[in-house]
Design goal:
Elements: E1 5-6, H1 11-44, H2 50-79, E2 87-88, H3 96-109, E3 128-129, H4 132-145, H5 147-151, E4 153-155, E5 161-167, E6 190-196, E7 199-208, H6 209-212, H7 219-241, E8 254-258, H8 267-274, E9 286-289, H9 291-297, E10 310-311, E11 319-321, E12 324-328, E13 340-345, E14 350-354, E15 359-363, E16 372-385, E17 391-395
Parallel strand pairs: 4-14, 8-17, 9-12
Antiparallel strand pairs: 1-2, 3-15, 5-6, 7-16, 9-13, 10-11, 11-12, 13-17, 14-16, 15-16
């Protein structure tokens, strides 16, 4: 039976832990100062002053510097070699995440790890199954890279999911006055069913062999970011535009407004679009559009000559329209004839299914002439608008 080597605890670990604790406390204090600045702007309903912007930028840089220091310290701790190693001791319990990261890294590098069921990657239909902790990190990174995916309702399960959809567009339950001995007229909405299945998608990421051969390079984080970036770009387009007979995007939402022009949008049309969503869902609504469409809207003025769009530095994208944040994405169609150029609503009405059990393949020979290896991740996904009352669209006039 193989025994692990005992590593004597180092006194430096305690010092390092105290140092990290101090850095994290500094970080928390800086974040509190940043929140105080943004809260003041929100409360007073105004923009940042030049001094406040400068202070906010300084605080933000300090937070990023601390994050970089913490990350470097943790990496240094992981690479430190103990001089007292060599005494045999019982096999300690290794944290699941660290164990799975080690197995995943070994699989990519082509290293044969010790034969332990808890460490080795299981074989799937399309390759080895990515450990759950790694898959979760990929999905979390996708959320950070794709705002629309982060706002959707997500399911990470296998198999088909069926959801009842209640439609009151043509008929709904109504209350009316009644007369004795006169029968009531029965009215009711219509229930339909929408299913989320699973469409296979593959993500290919190339990794330089120079990086693979560098034992000190954080190969796991690099691969996670590369795979997540490719998934995010694919998802962003599919969740917006969709593909016939596969995933459904938000541009297929109910067309609440058709613009009078093929190339321009009016303030009245934007108001009509916003008011098409019931008030109960307005709290989480957002505007989605291409940057060229935003350029058109920035030129809109009211009757007093004031610009309709507001610059809001407290939001991620920096713009609000009629009180709601604007999200810019290159995947949205431009304001062209017959195109859906603006979508408004609460994106939780779009349901997305991504199976967490991803399969991975490492292609060691295919890109040999490029001095690289290929890492392919296979996953199942689907999307449908399950709550259509939450999402509406504006379509440009067909023709010039």
């Amino acid at each position: 039976m193989n025994k692990r080597m005992y590593v004597k605890p180092r006194t430096g670990l305690l010092m390092r832990a105290e140092s990290l604790k101090g850095l994290k406390e500094q970080r928390a204090d800086l974040l509190t100062q940043m929140e105080t600045l943004t809260d003041a702007v929100k409360t007073e309903k105004r923009a940042f002053t030049e001094d406040e912007i400068a202070k906010f930028n300084v605080l933000e840089k300090q937070v990023k510097d601390i994050d970089a220091t913490i990350a470097a310290t943790e990496r240094a701790a992981a690479m430190t070699i103990d001089e007292t190693a060599g005494t045999e001791a019982p096999d300690p319990k290794e944290p699941t995440e660290a164990m799975e990261r080690r197995a995943f890294e070994g699989y990519i590098r082509g290293i044969v790890l010790e034969e332990r069921a808890a460490t080795n990657l299981e074989k799937g239909v399309n390759g080895a199954v990515i450990p759950k902790t790694i898959a979760n990190k990929i999905i979390e990174t996708v959320k950070e890279l794709s705002p629309i995916y982060a706002a959707t309702t997500k399911y990470h399960v296998k198999g088909e999911l069926s959801f009842p959809v209640y439609d009151e567009s043509t008929q709904r339950i109504q209350c009316a006055y009644a007369t004795e001995f006169t029968a009531l007229t029965s009215t009711a909405g219509k229930f339909t069913s929408v299913s989320l299945t699973g469409f296979l998608a593959g993500v290919l990421s190339k990794v330089s062999k120079s990086l693979v051969n560098n034992a000190q390079f954080d190969l796991v984080s690099y691969t996670i970011n590369k795979v997540a970036q490719a998934i995010a770009e694919f998802l962003e387009n599919e969740l917006i535009n969709g593909t016939a007979s596969k995933m459904t995007g938000i541009t297929s939402a109910t067309t609440a407004v058709t613009a009078a022009s093929a190339t321009a949008v009016t303030t009245d049309e934007l108001i009509d679009l916003q008011m098409s969503v019931p008030e109960v869902y307005q709290g989480k609504c957002e505007w989605y559009m291409h940057k060229d469409t935003l350029k058109l809207l920035r030129k809109l003025k009211d009757n007093d000559g004031n610009y309709v769009l507001n610059r809001d530095l407290t939001t991620a994208f920096g713009w609000t329209l009629l009180g709601r944040p604007i999200k810019i994405t290159e995947s949205m169609p431009k304001a062209e004839a017959g195109k859906v150029s603006i979508v408004y609503g609460d994106m939780s009405g779009l349901y997305v299914k991504i199976v967490e059990d991803m399969d991975i393949q490492v292609l060691t020979e295919k890109f040999a002439d490029e001095h690289a290896i290929g890492v392919i991740a296979w996953l199942e996904m689907d999307s449908k608008i399950i709550e259509p009352q939450k999402i509406v669209s504006l379509k440009m006039k067909a023709g010039a």
